[in-house]
Amino acid sequence: MTDAPEETALRAEHDALAAGLAARRSIDLVRRGAVVVWEDGHQRAQPEEWRRTFGSLDIQPTLVLARQTLHKVAPARVVFAFVPPRP
């Protein structure tokens, strides 16, 4: 089943608006700087791509944090990086 022309046009407009918003947010992030945080080994973490996108990405040493649980579990390994602001 194919979409009606109106639905296709609306979807294209939505995609264009979403791409524009993402670009503005990316520019704002570069201008203001940010802290990016992820769990070590997370499949969707893409630090090399983020470095290409934002320029500088200052990755800090991994934090190893004990989890407060009733059962013995592995500690959380948290990675964070600074995206320094650029005027």
Walk me through the structure:
The structure is a single chain. The chain is an alpha+beta fold and 87 residues long. The chain has one domain. Helix content is 41%, strand content 22%. It has 2 helices and 4 strands. The chain has helices spanning 5-32, 47-54; strands at residues 34-39, 58-59, 63-65, 76-83. Strands 1, 2, 3 and 4 form a 4-stranded antiparallel β-sheet that branches. The chain is flat. The model has no long low-confidence stretch (mean pLDDT 83).
- Treating each run of at least 4 consecutive H or I residues as one helix, how many helices? 2
What structural class do you assign from the helix and strand content?
alpha+beta
The tally of structural domains comes to 1
- Share in helix: 40-55%
Instruction: Quote the beta fraction.
Output: 15-25%
| H/E topology pattern | HEHEEE
Q: What would the average pLDDT be, to the nearest integer?
A: 83
Cα(first) to Cα(last) distance is 49 Å
What would you report as the Rg, rounded to the nearest angstrom?
Answer: 19 Å
Global morphology = flat
- Ranges with pLDDT <50 over ≥5 residues? none
- How many extended strands? 4
Major sheet description: 4 strands, antiparallel
Topology:
Blueprint: H1 5-32, E1 34-39, H2 47-54, E2 58-59, E3 63-65, E4 76-83
Brief characterization of the structure:
Strands 1, 2, 3 and 4 form a four-stranded antiparallel sheet that branches. This protein has 87 residues and is α+β, with helices and mostly antiparallel strands. The chain has two helices and four strands.
